[in-house]
């Protein structure tokens, strides 16, 4: 949930709008046709339903055994839920073709049912152009298992008072901090207590030691920088692009919208990063497209990395722990130290959702199927891992590849469990913490106990869409240089602010404040 990523996602979505036609084709059916209208809920056993194929559209790399898994899912549905009388068609679309193909499908009125969607994949435009069905009534009738875990998190996906997306039940936020090569921490007996302040500045003396005593090792490997992975999460309630509320040193009832580049904390971190760059702590090729920082850690040629943390048990600011995934990715023991734990943010709730297409011929059946993904571990396992014995085996309760198989030749291997259903029902893979999802549940309590000041507020970018595009263009000449330390902020930050202003920054800030004030008034907060 980085502010830079959010900005880019909103702008990308704005530029996709033209691809969705106003009509979006299909029928205007908010419920099933008379011939397929069930008499009761899925839980009570609907009867008299005609056969129906639910088409699931989702982004995924091509899977050789997609058809095999689809047949297994349909056999399972027939055996376990015969009263639903439905089959499933899995229709994955490669990530590279996702936007073009789904926009064309919606514009052409193609028949499909469940659709993965997100704010970073054009959700707002899909709703605006009428491509998605409102889900409130369908959810009330056919989504009891969805409601059991998601009932408090629907507001961010509402537009005009109606719900258009169902959030995947998963971790409700993230944590950001520093990864450290444990071997080097132990070698120099680094004191990690300074991180309890939550400030990334505590890393500096360690970077200096590595620079002086370990030639050939990059002290702080990038991409991923404090200004990208850490600043907004620890300092802002972001709204859109540059518009945000500064949460550092301001009262809890302060709803003043500011430019995120104007806070004292931004300047502090920009100056620090520039200092580290000049001192040789950050790799000079950090902005090279496609650069993989973890590969540098694998070779033992890097010490520290700033980024998103694994969610582990008993996460606290400044508390060092061995990182399970970081250790796997670096092929060496990596410590992780959280410096920021997300507040409950609107953007997280709209980052992974399922929607129902306006062209669905039986939305009830689509919602019934979606509900099953929130209660049925066997169904989730088929979708996420394939067929037991063929695509995976269980070892001590964790998923592993069958003997002699690799991810390249197994025929069905992906990591898209975050796209649908109740993740807490999932198996973990060998190498992951077996208690991963228990950790998620505990972590979620931390996140929900600290909601954003504006949780539930959704900004409509339409009135300032041109300004947002112009601001993004203005940022290109400066933002990467500032976040990597290659530009001195005392010389360049004001130049960036001037270009943002010329691109319409004041209009964006004013529009964000106007919409936020209206939302606050409606919700009795002001």
UniProtKB/TrEMBL annotation:
GO molecular-function term, one example from the UniProt record: phosphatidylinositol-4,5-bisphosphate phospholipase C activity
Record has Amino-acid biosynthesis as a keyword: no
Single GO biological process annotation from the record: lipid metabolic process
Signal among keywords: yes
Keywords per UniProt: Signal
Segments traversing the membrane: none
Record's signal peptide: 1-22
Protein name: ABC transporter substrate-binding protein
Gene source species: Paenibacillus stellifer
